[in-house]
Amino acid sequence: MKWRFFDQGEEGWQLSTFPMYQTGVSAAAQSKGIGVAGPRFFLPLEVARRAGSVSFNLEAGTCIPVHGDHEHFLGLVVGQALTAHLELDELQE
Fold first, then answer.
1. Preceding omega of 39 cis (within 30 degrees of 0)
2. Which residues sit opposite 7 in a β-bridge?
3. Structurally, how many domains does the chain consist of?
């Protein structure tokens, strides 16, 4: 569930968070490197802004695991509205 705690509308700044609790994956998935032991808590902060037909969305967060080191995430998505119902996005991590 996303909590938007600051909202200036479609053309203004929007700040939100969506904390997640993640369980671990199987030992087989861990051995293949496609998952990590759990559980862990993910706490992101998302900042969004639209300028005309272009949208900017910055997300930064940290994973706090029960076992292991903290992981930090940073990503930027820039989108261009093509129609009222279709947007083309580019992700940079």
1. yes
2. 14
3. 1
Q: What is the CA radius of gyration of the chain?
A: 16
Q: Which amino acid is at 30?
A: Q
Quick check: helix, strand or coil at residue 10?
coil
* Cα–Cα distance for residue pair 14/50, rounded to 1 Å: 9
Q: Which residue has the tokens 């490197």?
A: 33
Q: Specify the residue for token string 């900017």.
A: 56
Answer for the pair 62, 72: CB distance below 8 angstroms, yes or no.
Answer: yes
Give the pLDDT of residue 53: 84
> Which uninterrupted H or E stretch holds 73?
strand 71-83
Domain housing 17: 3-22+38-92
pTM of the model: 0.73
- Classify residue 17: in a domain, yes or no: yes
